[in-house]
Amino acid sequence: MTRDKVIGIGALLLAGLGFLVLSTSQEGRGAGRPPSTSIDLPAIGAPSDINKISITNGEKGEVVLEKVASPGGADTSADAGPSEVWMVTKPVRALANQVSTKDLVSNLQDLKVDSEVHLTLDDTVRKDKQLDPAHAVHVVAWKGSDKKVDENFGKSGPAGQLVVLGSKPNQVWAAKGYSSYLYTKDVKDFRDKEILKFEDNSVARVTIVNAHGTFSFTKGDKWAATLSKKRSRSSMKRSSRTCFVPGSLSQQTTSRRQVGGRCWVR
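Now predict its structure.
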């Protein structure tokens, strides 16, 4: 074997050895590295055809909205759906504000999970992040008997609105699109506030009775108001009143004493 051939074979062996060392080094640097994985983000938006919504704002109690047949057989709003309106059915039964309820349904449709939040949900963390029953906003929505949404919303932060799903109670997610004012209103703000619709031209008198007395408003050329203050029990016992005298068709104003709710003349 000539000297040139020996040199050539040696060069090939060195090149192969170098490639083997390089490959081994790269494999070593990759050892122990966790494989990259993509997390499937859950869908939290509601469909557009939900017909019942329950909102429990911590310890403030539950408000339930339901879509029912319109009492008048026609829509009260062009967007309310054919012959259907939204009603507040808990804690009272009253016509709901159709516009704000439509906004609520629209907001539920737009909710999306942006990322997972790595938290260990013990009692202390739940309270701190307002995901405990005393502070969380618990939203449940149905289409008929089919539950479409079951979510607990907590604090809002840079990542988004913290949310825990009923189906994944130990995982926390950051949601986008949540408008808290639509869910945390007082009961009265879910109701239709235009309930006193009447033709004032046909009204001649209005009377309001409350703890302070009786307010009377009478319509003439102008509206006139009078107030009859509510008297205390002690002042009523010392006062005179108009009583029917037994055996007489006339009325007499006399001092009296009250026994068993009856008026006695003396």
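The chain has three domains: 52-190, 201-230, 236-266.
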